[in-house]
């Protein structure tokens, strides 16, 4: 159901901003804010679960496990998850996609970096052969049709725009639902990608890891075929900043009062405390019956 909702978003003529979530509480907050889709980043999972950078420490099984915990908080809102390079050959990529689908993930993005990968915004990246990358996408389209496939290419920083366009076209022809030309931020260059791939939805990244990006309006982006804008770690970085300020305030002054925080009542409402207590009253006996 949510995969079809995600495909409908890609088929629309508007831009949808997709924030990162990483647990049931952030998922619930994103839903409450009115978002139409959300994202689970490999970098976020690596940081939250392991305290490690996005350098291949996390496998798809861990991302699927994390997704299964937060999907119930999303209702009908689709979740897009980072599938790295598919974690191997086309058969491994299919296994990853099926595991993601079982976890409730609606769509994934698969990149064409060589393994072991480097974080998408670091220098020294290498990309695999275009045929090898396309074979993974074809395998997913054939064997995991219930999950949306977003084909990401990291060719731009390695071989430039022309190679990026060639790869995006090949991946769309291989069966990708959308293409993700990582690093292409200039409106004129996005227009060239769109002109070369009419009717193919584009996905772009607004991760803080990429540094300053051009300021483009949604109207500009929609005109050049962009349908999804990912904000994978914005909420995580905001939460880490708030936690840092809170710990510092307690260490310095013995209280968190100087720090703006969610009221306790809002927190308990978010996690459904009243509903849980009502269930206890309804189903749990007040005393043992003998």
TrEMBL record:
InterPro entries referenced in this protein's UniProt entry, alphabetically: ICL/PEPM, Isocitrate_lyase_ph_CS, Pyrv/PenolPyrv_kinase-like_dom, Pyrv_kinase-like_dom_sf
Superkingdom of origin organism: Bacteria
Protein name: Oxaloacetate decarboxylase
Species annotation: Actinoplanes subglobosus
